[in-house]
């Protein structure tokens, strides 16, 4: 059995790839925002679903890389070097958006006109906990040996430079 040498992608490449992917997704989702006018939940749900589909499709593809990752010559691999299947790609993608989704929903709830101080306090607490969790979710990559975020660690994946 031969062990493949891989060079872990640096944080800057990962962030830039993510920005490129988010710009692409924003452009694709923009028509939905225009069509739904003031109904904020529909574009939000569509954004989460399209993001999960986008990352699931690309991470389970032959290149195992999103468009942003392809541009920056990086890709996602399983730590055991087996191909990422569609289920792993979906689970990883869903987990990646879990905290930000809860955070956005709680921020929307804070903006609602709720007169019950207890409910407002609970929503605020959920927002703060989710914000801290979301921040740590990605900051962990700065201290991880393989620059892995929490969803990488959970699903035994990492992002590496193309060979």
From TrEMBL:
Its main location: membrane. Residues 8-154 form the RDD domain. The chain crosses the membrane at residues 12-33, 39-60, 117-140. Keywords: Cell membrane, Membrane, Transmembrane, Transmembrane helix. It comes from the Bacteria. Pfam families: RDD. One of its GO terms (cellular component) is plasma membrane. It is found in: Cell membrane. It is a multi-pass membrane protein. This is RDD family protein. It comes from Ehrlichia chaffeensis (strain ATCC CRL-10679 / Arkansas).
